[in-house]
Amino acid sequence: MNNSILSVDTLQRHGKSGEGTVAENAPETSAGISGKSLLLVSGTFFLIYLLLSARRHAANLTTGYDLGIFTQIVRSYSEFSAPYSDLKGPTYNTLGDHFHPILALLAPLYKAFPSSYTLLVCQAALVAFSIVPLMKWAHKAGGQNFAYWVGVSYGASWGIAALIFFDFHEVSFAVPLLSLSLCAAGRKNWRAAALWSLPLVLVKEDLGLTVAAIGAYVAWKGPRVTGLAVAAFGAGATALEMLVILPHFNPLGQFAYLPPETAEEVGMLAQAAGALWPPVKWLTLLMIVAPTGFLALRSPILLVALPTLAWRFTGSNPFYWGMDFHYSAVLMPIAFAAAVHTVANGVTARRLLPACVVGAVATSVTLVTHPLHEVVLPRTWSDSAYVRTSDELLGKIPDGATVAASNRLAAQLADRASVSEVCLFPRSFPPKERPEWLIYDVADTSDPECPTGKALESADPGVPGYRVVETRDGITLLRLAGDGKGSR
Questions:
Q1: Which residue, 68, 201, 256, 362, could crosslink 414 as a Cys pair with Cβ 3.0–4.6 Å?
Q2: Which residues contact 452 (CB under 8 A, 6 or more apart)?
Q3: Hey, which residues does 371 pair with through a beta bridge?
Q4: Is cis: bond before 426, omega within 30 of 0?
Q5: What is the rounded CA–CA span in Å between residue 23 and residue 42?
Q6: 3-state secondary structure of 133
Q7: pTM for the whole structure
Q8: Mind telling me which residue stretches traverse the membrane in this protein (predicted)?
C-alpha cells in the first residue's frame, strides 16, 4: 500500500471528494515508523545542530552570557560543589538566579570530557531526540510522509534554530520532556504524560506552570484526579522556587526576575492590552503556529503554551517578545504536538496538503532568518584574523588562572580558568582579590558602559594596577602589576 497520506489511491477509496480523515486513510501498521527513518531525521539534525554550535564556539562567537555561565555551573557540579558562576559574580550561587538543578545530570559527562563542547554535544543530542516522539505519533496519525514532514519541519523550526544558534541553555532539557509528555497526552497515555512532565520543574522555575497546564489538560480530557494532582504539583513547585528557593540563594534576597511595578492608575484592561503590544508579539504568535500550517490552532494541546507566552508578553524585557534567542524553543514541541493531534482527530486528507505546503513555506522563510543554513556557508568554516589573534592572546593565559574577560571571550576560558566579566570589574559584585589577568575586546559592545573599556580607550590608556602585555586587533591583554612580566 502506498504510504502517502494524500495518494491518488487513497482519495479514490474514499470517494472523489477525498473527505475521509487522514487517520482513517493512513495505512494499517503494527510496527510503526522504522528505526532507520527516525535515525535518519534525528541523526541528521543532531549533526547539523552540533556542527553549527561547535563551529560557532571555535570561531569565538559564543559568549560568557550564556555558554560561559553554564560551563561554570556544570563544572561546579562535576567538582561536587554548589553551582557557582564567577561570571555572575564572585562565588555567585546560580540557584539564586534560575532554578535548574537538572544540569547536574551533565556533571559525569563533563568530568570525563571537561570542555564547553560537552555542553554543546549534549544540547544537540537532547534537541535531536525530541524529534523522535513526534515522528512516531505523526506516523500513526497520518502515515510515513506526514511523519517525515513533521520531523523535518520541527527540526528546522525557528524556535529550535534560535536555541542552537545562541550558546547553551537549560531549556534544552525541557524540549524532549515536552515532546514525550505531549505526545503521550495526545495518545491518551495519561500516566506517561504526567510522569514525563514532572521533571520540568527541575529545568527552570517558570516551567512548573507549564506542568500545571499539562495537568489541567489531563484533568480535562483524562483522569481528573491525576490531572489535578499534576497541576497542583506544577503550580506549587513554581511558587516554592520563585518565592522561597531563589530568594534564599540570591545575594539580594529576592527573585531576580520580578515583573516591574505598574502604576496604580493603570487599570486591568490597560495592562491586558499592553500584554499584546507592540506588534512584534503578534508576529511571534503568528510564527509559532505558521510552521505547522496552522494545524496547531485546531488542538487544545496548544493551550499548554499559554504560561510561557503569559510571562514573556507581560515582561518588560523586549527580548522576551520576539523570535530571537532561546525563549521560543519550548513552544515548538507544543505547537507540533498540537498539529499532530489535529491530524489524529479528524482533519481530512484534502485539507492536509495545503496545510503542509503553508507550513513548509513558513519554515523555508525562517531558515533564511534563523541560521541553521549557516552550517553550509563557507564563511562558517574559515577563521578570520580576529579569531587567530584572540586565540593567540587567550593562549598566553595559563590554565587555572583568575581572569576577567570580555563577554565574547569569556566562554573560551570558562572550562580551564576562573573567569569573571571584565565589564563588571570592578563596578559591581567586586571580587575579594583582583584577577591576575584582564583581556578586553574593543569590538565587544555587550556593555557600552564598560569601565575597563573606557579606561583602555581614554587619552591615557591603562587600568590602574595592571600592565599591558599585548594589544592586537583591538584586543588588549593585561596582567596584574608587580610580576615583572608585563610591559607597556
A1: 68
A2: 404, 422, 423, 425, 438, 440, 463
A3: none
A4: yes
A5: 24
A6: helix
A7: 0.89
A8: 33-52, 117-134, 146-166, 196-220, 227-249, 295-313, 325-344
Query: How many CA atoms lie less than 13 Å away from 259 in the CB half-sphere?
Result: 12
Type of residue found at 357: V
Is residue 240 within 8 A of residue 202, CB to CB? The reply is no
pLDDT band at 12 (very low <50, low <70, confident <90, very high): very low
Distance, in Å, from the CA atom of 211 to the CA atom of 231, rounded to the nearest integer, reads: 6
Residue 129, all three cell numbers: 531526540
Q: How many residues are recorded in the chain?
A: 488
Cα 164 versus chain centre, distance: 7
Distance CA 181, CA 190 (A): 9
The distance of Cα 276 from the centroid of its chain, to the nearest Å, equals 23
Strand partners, 421: 405
Q: DSSP letter for 59, please.
A: T
Lookup: cell for 427 = 563596578
Cell 570542555 appears where?
Answer: 115
- Which three cell numbers, joined as nine digits, stand for 422? 571584565
Give the tens place of pLDDT for each residue, 129-184. Answer: 999 999 999 999 999 999 999 999 999 999 999 999 989 999 999 999 999 999 99
- Sheet of 418-421: strand order equals 418-421, 402-405, 437-441, 475-480, 466-472
Distances (CA, A) of 107 to 59, 66, 155, 172, 305: 25, 17, 27, 16, 30
